[in-house]
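Retro notes (design track)

What went well: tokenization of the new backbones is finally stable.
What didn't: we kept losing track of which sequence belonged to which structure.
Fix going forward: every design gets posted as structure first, then sequence, in one message. First example under the new rule, 83 residues:
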């Protein structure tokens, strides 16, 4: 569980709990769902653009739902580690 999950869970997500922002009302679970969907679609695409713009190569941003449902194979490399 990461910090954002803890913050969302700290909200009392009952039928009567809503988040009010500029005359809009959203349940905490709706906000979390919409935020994740936005990142899955546009967020990953933008992340890929930033990585490429900064000269860090290609980033597999087009993997879409794979990121969140299956994951992508990767390695963490650390200098002087015994691997």
């Amino acid at each position: 569980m990461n910090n954002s999950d803890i913050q969302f869970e700290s909200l009392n997500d009952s039928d009567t709990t809503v988040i009010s922002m500029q005359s809009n009302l959203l349940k905490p679970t709706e906000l979390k769902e919409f935020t994740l969907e936005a990142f899955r679609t546009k967020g990953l695409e933008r992340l890929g653009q930033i990585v490429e713009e900064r000269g860090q190569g290609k980033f597999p941003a087009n993997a879409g739902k794979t990121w969140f449902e299956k994951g992508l194979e990767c390695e963490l490399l650390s200098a002087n580690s015994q691997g």
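Added context from the reviewer: The first strand starts at residue 19 and ends at 21.
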